[in-house]
Amino acid sequence: MQELKDRVRPVTDKDKGLPTFSYSKIEVFKNCPLQYKFKYMDKKYSQDTSIALELGSLCHYVLETKGKMIASGQAVDYDKLNNILQNGVTETDEKTKEELLGVVQLRRKYFEVWHEADNASGASYEEKIKLFDKVLHEEMEDTTWQPTYFEKPFEFIWDNKVILKGFIDRIDVKDGQYRTVDYKTSKKIYDQSKLATSLQFGIYALAILNEFGELPIESQYRFILIDDEQYALTKGWEKRLIKALDKVFGDIEASENKNLFIPKPTPLCHWCNFCTTNPEATIYKNECEYYSKWTPTQKTFEVNKKWNALENNNTEKKRKLVF
Ligand code: SF4
Q1: DSSP code at position 226
Q2: Is the pTM of this model over 0.85?
């Protein structure tokens, strides 16, 4: 733990101007540096939304509301929770600052796909909502862990180089020990290989260390639409996390210095806001030429245009250092 403690500290006024990262910003770079450039360097933010995003935000909010009822010692009001789930809310938490549509409206808005089974869990959204109702009744009923913080904001300095910030869905406390929980609305659980040194939970662990002086003893992914769970950060994760963060920040620094952001086309392009094949992309949907032609109905390794390193090295102009 000492090695981590030496690299983590609170943000002070003197740190203004350091580059700021969230876990998702790092993940976007790892998945596709070109997408990172469009989104975070060129600031091509789109308001694109999707059934997965809207339903995910709604379910997070309902669980957060239940957690707050438990934490404040109230009896859980399932009628109220069910009303939020079905009808949504017009005022939400600090993070989203948006109104949330309920299941009734989402079913209407996304009627073409609402009853379709997905290709991983085999369940439709209608079926997933029934499973979520079961999860809602069971979650946080284990009285050994006390749900204590919800959508907890954090920020800290990593290695005197960058500000890491974000929100943790839930932090539970038991006898002065901590557990971080992240709600997932994915259609399947993760490969074991993604869990051992989860960057997301590694960053959350550093946030807990910065704020409470301890590392969490459990890091739980809770898959709330398929009623499953997984635990991340296996033995020796601390050293592996340091290595992983050093590598990714080194790679980002190198890309930004050369202004060279190489596309990584994969089936994930189909969900990228800069991709022509993404049916939910809007204003920036034709931004990327290098996209994979993979779609759920046409599984191919073909790309629209191959990346040419020489051509791009010559045309990119040098940028000033950011680290
Ligand atoms: S479409 Fe694919 S290659 Fe292009 S920016 Fe998006 S993820 Fe990267």
Answers
A1: T
A2: yes
